[in-house]
């Protein structure tokens, strides 16, 4: 072995090869060393460029939901915030505020506007529905608004959010609303709570303002069933006025949006689930809701089932942004949440100012109107026979739409006699003076009743039977069997209908 090493070391070629290897190793070491030194230098430079925490550079931690608690403001935002701070301390001319609210002022009167300006509203959920509700409450004069939402603005939020822009993506929704609305109504005070509403936090989140003022109204714009039920149950239990927005997803028909009691809301899965859970908690009615009676149909958007491969990944609940939250994207036409939010804000404004508002019940009652029309046809035929008239082929000059108008708009969906809202019918209020006043047979081969809408009154089925026997076929007048209050009510509704008939 020693002789081999000695021979190799003495070889000129071997010496050259060894020199090349050693030189390559040294060069590689130098290169790697230089790269490592350069990386360290760059890291040190990057660390050095990060400013120390100070008043100029405020670092905010992430929320419990992984969102930024608040992002920095532009120069314009800073100026708006400074103006708002002065305005909320009283450094803002009240005449300017009244001028900005002039149209509301002449509509609601000074007394009504004063009530609105002194109110304290809580909006829970600041997405498509809540942002539009908040924007219009602020623009209408509400001076104290508490915003509650844990979420932040995303790109997909921009199709329905009232004020968010591209700059606001990644910003908490509550702060986005405050920042944008301060540029419109700097005197409005906002209490922003970038947090999830829950049953455990309800007492503090729905508690009084810093000056002790109790909430005047709560708007529920939550799309999570557990939080929605917790909010509505707390408000009902503690007698806090509240209005709830039901589902705007998959809806497209604005003519089918209604305000009504949660007990009467139909054709809305979110309303149905909420109502069922509230009933289990002892709350069955008394909560006004904004809902749509639009039914799903061919070609319409719908919530599609989760793909099978998602189930293969494990627990579906883990796909949600939070436990018990929906994991599928709900198709939403951007205009519909806006209308739900505006409707909720409109209700709050009317309720707080005492402005008259009587809502028409949901119009999804075509079968009821058709049944009432059929019953009225039979009644007219029976009355005509009592006058000795041939009623074969008798037609009524009343349509299904006329029935709906009388029942819902003139008599508010209730019996004029008892005020009941079940088993409704329409009957002639007074008997025809003669058989000539009963049937029009001037045209050959055609007979029609001379019935007018102003002849009809809404009563229950049982009341209609008595009315037919005693008045239409008997010899009595309404004054003979009804209280004066009933007579006055019917006459007032007939006169009211005459005023509005020109608009039909």
UniProtKB/TrEMBL annotation:
A GO term, aspect molecular function: ATP binding
Q: Which InterPro entries match?
A: ThiF/MoeB/HesA, ThiF_NAD_FAD-bd, Ubiquitin-activating_enz
> Transmembrane region positions?
16-37
Keywords annotated in UniProt: ATP-binding, Ligase, Membrane, Mitochondrion, Mitochondrion outer membrane, Nucleotide-binding, Transmembrane, Transmembrane helix
Residue ranges occupied by any THIF-type NAD/FAD binding fold domain in the UniProt entry: 103-359
Provide the topology term for how it sits in the membrane: Multi-pass membrane protein
Tagged with keyword Manganese: no
Record GO cellular component, one term:
mitochondrial outer membrane
- Give the protein's biological function: Catalyzes the ATP-dependent dehydration of threonylcarbamoyladenosine at position 37 (t(6)A37) to form cyclic t(6)A37 (ct(6)A37) in tRNAs that read codons beginning with adenine.
Spell out the family assignment given in the record's similarity comment: Belongs to the HesA/MoeB/ThiF family.
Q: What is this protein called?
A: THIF-type NAD/FAD binding fold domain-containing protein
The organism named in the record is Xylona heveae (strain CBS 132557 / TC161)
């Amino acid at each position: 072995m020693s002789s081999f090493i000695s021979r190799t070391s003495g070889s000129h070629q071997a010496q050259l090869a060894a020199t090349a290897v050693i030189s390559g190793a040294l060069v590689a070491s130098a290169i790697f060393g230089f790269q490592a030194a350069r990386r360290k230098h760059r890291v040190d430079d990057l660390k050095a460029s990060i400013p120390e925490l100070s008043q100029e550079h405020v670092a905010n931690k992430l929320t419990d939901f992984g969102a930024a608690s608040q992002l920095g403001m532009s120069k314009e935002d800073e100026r708006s915030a400074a103006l708002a701070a002065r305005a909320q301390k009283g450094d803002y001319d009240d005449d300017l505020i009244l001028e900005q609210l002039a149209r509301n002022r002449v509509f609601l009167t000074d007394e009504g506007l004063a009530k609105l300006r002194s109110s304290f509203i809580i909006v829970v959920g600041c997405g498509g529905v809540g942002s539009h509700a908040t924007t219009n409450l602020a623009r209408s004069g509400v001076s104290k608004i508490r915003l509650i939402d844990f979420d932040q603005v995303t790109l997909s939020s921009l199709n329905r959010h009232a004020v968010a822009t591209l700059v606001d993506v990644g910003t908490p929704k509550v702060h986005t609303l405050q920042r944008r609305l301060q540029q419109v109504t700097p005197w409005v005070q906002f209490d922003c709570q970038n947090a999830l509403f829950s049953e455990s936090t309800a007492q503090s989140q729905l508690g009084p303002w810093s000056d002790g003022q109790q909430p005047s109204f709560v708007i529920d714009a939550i799309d999570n069933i557990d939080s929605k039920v917790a909010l509505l149950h707390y408000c009902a239990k503690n007698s806090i006025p509240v209005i709830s927005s039901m589902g705007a997803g998959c809806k497209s028909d604005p003519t089918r949006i209604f305000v009504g009691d949660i007990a009467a809301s139909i054709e809305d899965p979110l309303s149905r689930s909420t109502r069922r859970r509230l009933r289990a908690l002892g709350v069955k009615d008394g909560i006004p809701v904004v809902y749509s009676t639009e039914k799903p149909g061919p070609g319409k958007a719908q919530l599609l089932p989760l793909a099978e491969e998602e189930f293969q990944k494990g627990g579906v609940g883990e796909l949600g942004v939070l436990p018990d939250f929906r994991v599928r994207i709900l198709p939403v036409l951007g205009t519909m949440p806006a209308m739900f939010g505006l409707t909720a804000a409109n209700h709050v404004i009317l309720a707080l100012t005492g402005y008259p508002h009587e809502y028409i019940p949901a119009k999804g009652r075509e079968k009821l109107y058709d049944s009432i029309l059929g019953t009225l046809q039979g009644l007219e035929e029976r009355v005509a026979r009592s006058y000795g008239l041939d009623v074969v082929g008798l037609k009524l000059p009343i349509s299904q739409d006329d029935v709906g108008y009388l029942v819902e708009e003139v008599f508010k969906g209730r019996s004029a006699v008892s005020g009941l809202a079940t088993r409704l019918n329409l009957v002639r209020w007074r008997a025809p003076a003669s058989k000539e006043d009963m049937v029009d047979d001037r045209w050959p081969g055609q007979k029609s009743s001379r019935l007018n809408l102003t002849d009809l009154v809404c009563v229950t089925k049982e009341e209609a039977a008595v009315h037919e026997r005693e008045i239409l076929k008997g010899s009595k007048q309404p004054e003979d069997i009804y209280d004066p209050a009933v007579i006055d009510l019917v006459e007032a509704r007939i006169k009211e209908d005459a005023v509005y008939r020109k608009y039909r």
